[in-house]
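Subgroup meeting minutes
Present: P.N., E.W., G.H.
Scribe: E.W.

1. P.N. recapped why we're keeping a running log of single-chain structure predictions: easier to compare across weeks, and new members can see raw inputs and outputs side by side.
2. G.H. added today's entry (173 aa).
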Amino acid sequence: WEKGYHATSMQDLIDALGINRASLYDTFGSKKELFDLTLTHYQEQNAKVIAGFLYYQTNVRQGIYLLFERMIDDALNNDTQRGCFTINATTELASADGTVNKLVAEDKLVLEEILTNYLQYGVNQSQISPYKDLKIISSYLYALQSGIKVVSKIQSNKEQLLKQVSIGLGVLD
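Output recorded in log:
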């Protein structure tokens, strides 16, 4: 997370994990296998957190706004500017690594499904027009979220980022 996949050595991993080299190889096989397992675990946990958060939001537009606000707060309160593990993996590795490409593509589908289901709740509660294309809106919200996660690495103005979110949520009107 701090250096990226390519700049992280096996010794960096051994030092960070506090284990010996043989234990790392015996448990995970390789740096690549450890990375793929870690990315998968991160994505699963992230999806659970997002679904759990949205579950308790009865106002759909406000719930999505609060989800974005929480994401922005996490990004801006991170002293090391680590960013989102999935976004970092996407930008560094997805175009050259078939496994990472597959993992981030599957994660995108999972997150879009969570958003689609939440938007459907909004339709059912008469908060969103039933004539909206929920799958396209979910895909758009995923892209907006991804873009804001990237931009937040170089732009630390929360108000401006939230204005972008507000404009983006206009698709729900």
